[in-house]
Amino acid sequence: MKHKLEVYEQKRRFDETPEPRGRTARRSARPREGEGSFVIQRHDARRLHYDFRLELDGTLKSWAIPKGPSLDPTVKRLAVHVEDHRLEYGSFEGRIPEGSYGAGTVAIWDHGVWRPEGGLRGAREGYAQGKLKFTLEGERLHGGWTLVRSPMHDGKQESWLLIKQRDDEAVPEDEFHVVSDERAASNASNASKVSKVSKASKKRARASNEAEVAGVRITHPERVIDAQSGLRKIDLVEYFEAISAWLLPHVQGRPVALARAPKGVGGELFFQKHAKALQIPHATQHAGLDPGHAPLLTLESTEALVGAAQMDTIELHTWNALAASIEKPDRIVFDLDPDPSLPWERMLEAAQLTRELLDALGLRAWCKTSGGRGLHLVVPLTRHAGWEEAKDFARAVASHMAATLPERFSAKMGAQNRKGRIFVDYLRNNRGASTAAAYAPRARPGLGVSVPVDWDELHTLTSGDQWNVANVRERLEALRTDPWSGYEKARQRITAAMWKQLGGK
DNA sequence: GCGAGCG
DNA sequence: CGCTCGCAACGCACG
DNA sequence: CGTGCG
Ligand SMILES: [Mn+2]
Ligand SMILES: [Mn+2]
């Protein structure tokens, strides 16, 4: 106990604060035998909370309650056990200056008498054992209360819960809105009826708030994730399910980066490459590929795609290597990013020109819309080179384009460098970098989709996002041949001759 | 969307 | 309990 | 060099 007070005094510099210095003398008008004083101070500090203090054995046992007490017996309020305070502190109100521990303002929110069940002995035992039952007689709070130590107390501070007991002083607020009609109809305050109604309404709410697709529980299926198209979460989920046969060949075996948007397009978007446990339902984990991190992920099945969608994955980006040969990329990607002011025709020409350079080098490339503003050129490779060589080679190609056609291409990122031109983004060929996969949606208004195209149809393309989650099905149904035929069979490598043509390393 | 950390 | 916070990561452009 | 962007 003495120790606790010392800790407190160390945290405070008494000469700088208006709080009372502890004195050993005096003690004001005492409550009756078996009772003690209590106080709740509203403490507007770095974080607003309520300090709940019970007098016991000459000191104030103290808890910080972030949300303050609730009169609803079904509500448990976290009460973090904090240092004992001196009795004198119970009457403190005022400002704790900046720079002092607990800086902010303190106001007495309630005070009065607490009467522990079992008297003084009950209080001591309850406090030691982590379960205090007591009655409060304050100005705001009355009736029975329970303060229990939560089984989960990790490390320094104990977590307790403050709960109102069910008595006449309790004010149930649970489901107030849902139940209020019922209550008005029959003015009987029938607790069991209320709880039945609330249970039923919760069940109903869950039923309409959940769906099941490919064995995966889908929460909030009706939530609109893109205002522009009006598409809902369930539409995205069903898109992934329907596109599965087309999409899986492009993601299976490859570590992914998921771009997730729990609040939909326009909300916060974050990437996720790693996950512990089965945080993404049905995803496959690959521990050890990325040292110092949780396992990398691959998506191998329809269930995994749907699982990702349940977790609000919109974009699916893949590495340029398989998990099984993580140090040997099996392709390089050129991401053609146009200055937004350029006419689309320049974009098509750029793709064709890039293709011609690659062709001259002896490399076949395949093209897809990005689902956004541009196009992606994908060059499959046998798994012969390391990341360093693949990246250097991609940079050499981009630099060559920029050097030969500087009015059209830039190999430097940054809006400045791209002005009036197309940035050949070769940076997606670094280890750990990734590019939106074929048939993956993009987290942009309209939910564009990256779609593989045949070179023969290049001239018919109208934009990088001409296909989207809503209309790509039409495209696929109309297809007579695989636009990427030959891709799987390609066996090509980066050779010394290519380097020579590009002007050496 | 969800687990971890924290008050 | 209930809130808030991560959830990639790194070369490159710019100052 | 540090900082911020993509
Ligand atoms: Mn406090
Ligand atoms: Mn792009």
Automatic annotation (TrEMBL):
Protein keywords? Ligase
All residue ranges annotated as the DNA ligase D 3'-phosphoesterase domain in the record: 41-149
Q: Which InterPro entries match?
A: LigD_PE_domain, LigD_pol_dom, NHEJ_LigD, PaeLigD_Pol-like
Domain of life assignment: Bacteria
- Which segments carry the region annotation Disordered? 1-37, 182-204
Entry's Gene Ontology molecular function annotations: ligase activity
The record places domain DNA ligase D polymerase at 233-484
Specify the protein name: ATP-dependent DNA ligase
Q: Low complexity compositional bias: what residue ranges? A: 185-198
Residue spans with biased composition (Basic and acidic residues)? 1-22
Q: Name one Pfam family in it.
A: LigD_N
